[in-house]
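Example record used in the benchmark description.
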Amino acid sequence: GCLDALGPNRATLFQHLNAALQLGEQRLRASQAGQVDLFGLDAGPEAPAGELELPAVEEWSEAERLQGERDTLGLFLTGHPINAYERELSALVSGRIVDLVSAPRPDGEPRFGGGKDVVLAGLVLEVKRRANRTFLLLDDRSARVEAMLFDDVFQEHRDILKKDAILLVEGQLRWDDFQDDWRVNARKLTLMDQVREREARKIMLRWPANGQGERLLLELEEALRPYLPGECGISLHYQRPGASATLSLGEDWRVKPTRELIDRLSRMVGASGIRVVYGPRLDG
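Model output (structure tokens):
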């Protein structure tokens, strides 16, 4: 990440890393051997030994970049995986984790009762099994909270309970006397990508005013076709000084809003140029 400025993007630098290392080794060997130039003069360690061209390749998606940071450093450096859903969360959750767990300890609540129903989203940092219960540590970049699953809930959702999964969790938020903190008793868990595919109603794109509209329309058609037919509409918003317009594509262009499609559209219009719109929150 600290070398990002050396090339057009991180994917390009990584693509040409082996060639850069080979060039560096060649220069080192030439310097150590006292290589001379055509006229018999010592080239010296400062003499150029050829420059490496870096043809640009398509940048990694945010998910790929963050996973690379996690694999290399053990942490996310330039963002958080939940950022890909951040603009959508208000339509899906009761609140961010920090808002849910910052409430003071309840007074007079029955030890095994009370609590309130919540919906939250988070990245799974840990999965632990103890006896007939499973515990997930969830992180949404604002804070962390532990979710507990009884065995019937675990068995129903075991295929998606993996580290680094991003889940929408429905359950009851209660104060846990044993750990002296808030905990969620989870009843239902869904991968965020599945929530998006099931409940998204429209993808709104802010069309860049860069004078390349015709080329972008061709790219948009190419991007959408593999995800037809679906239930999610597409709208384009274009704005420039003195004029703006919004165009909704017809029913034939309704798509399946998969993670791959969202990533591809984000690369076309920028992460801030895309918004996923949901209908009323669906219970159950």
